[in-house]
Amino acid sequence: NAGVTQTPKFQVLKTGQSMTLQCAQDMNHEYMSWYRQDPGMGLRLIHYSVGAGITDQGEVPNGYNVSRSTTEDFPLRLLSAAPSQTSVYFCASSYGWASTDTQYFGPGTRLTVL
Amino acid sequence: AQTVTQSQPEMSVQEAETVTLSCTYDTSESDYYLFWYKQPPSRQMILVIRQEAYKQQNATENRFSVNFQKAAKSFSLKISDSQLGDAAMYFCAYSPPNSGYALNFGKGTSLLVTP
Q1: pLDDT tens sequence across A65-114
Q2: Which chain A residues are closer than 8 Å to B47 by Cβ?
Q3: Residue A40 near residue A50, CB atoms below 8 Å
Q4: For residues A22 and A67, what is the distance between their CA atoms, to the nearest angstrom?
Q5: Is B48 within 8 Å of B77 (Cβ atoms)?
Q6: pLDDT at site B56
Q7: Spans in chain B with pLDDT lower than 70
């Protein structure tokens, strides 16, 4: 298994540009989430999904869109990039809610918006 | 909204000694999950330990253990016999029930381990 993969690893955008951060997992996990990590702020939840076709907002959803058309993929779209969206973005997934389940994180995408 | 507070931005411990990292949280739920994650300089998020709120027994994973005080909404992490490889950022996280592990993180504690 590749686990949770994220592409790209690094990205530089200009203000106003749009892009999609890709996240994929090959573990047949139902639950997937996107977080952003800013210096001194910890990780903050952007959006999450409890299964294909179902998404919900987290703590900081403004400026981001998600969709979950398949179990494997959970892309994060920036509609019009702003400098405030400069951050490291993490995707995570887990099988379920049982005490034996573990949430797996991807390696992160470092995004800079100029 | 639930909040997670880590009051120690930085901690330092000598190799082989014991250190405790603090975490408090706020919730009106009775059932939830609590976690400690480790983030080394590689940025990879690594699960250290988890605690189910309905379990009174404190979780333990090798040198890592927690002190879970549900009434006080406190969830501290104790690292025994500290090793140089334990140096990292440590994040406390809360997950409400039925949210698919959507985590609320604290701001983290940077742990320095000195020889």
Answers
A1: 999 999 999 999 999 999 999 999 999 998 876 656 778 899 999 999 99
A2: 102-103
A3: no
A4: 11
A5: yes
A6: 85
A7: 1-2, 98-101
Q: Which long-range contacts (CB under 8 A, 24 or more apart) does B69-75 make?
A: B72/B24, B73/B24, B73/B25, B73/B26, B73/B27, B74/B22, B74/B23, B74/B24, B75/B23, B75/B24, B75/B25, B75/B34, B75/B36, B75/B51
What confidence score (pLDDT) does residue A98 get?
A: 61
Query: Which is higher by pLDDT, A42 or B9?
Result: B9
Give pLDDT, residue B11. 97
Which of A90, A99, A93, A100 minimizes the C-alpha distance to A31? Answer: A93
Q: Which two tokens stand for residue B36?
A: 């400690």
Hey, which residues 71-100 in chain B have their CB within 8 Å of chain A? 91, 93, 97-100
Pairing of strands A10-13, A109-113: parallel
> Which residue has 């999609």 as its token pair?
A20
Number of A to B CB contacts under 8 A, please give it: 60
B62-85 CB burial, b ≥16 within 10 A, e <16 = eebbbebeeeebebbbbbeebeee
* B104 within 8 A of B95, measured Cβ to Cβ: yes
B47, B100, B106 member nearest A31 (Cβ): B100
The model's confidence at residue A52, banded by pLDDT at 50, 70 and 90, is very high
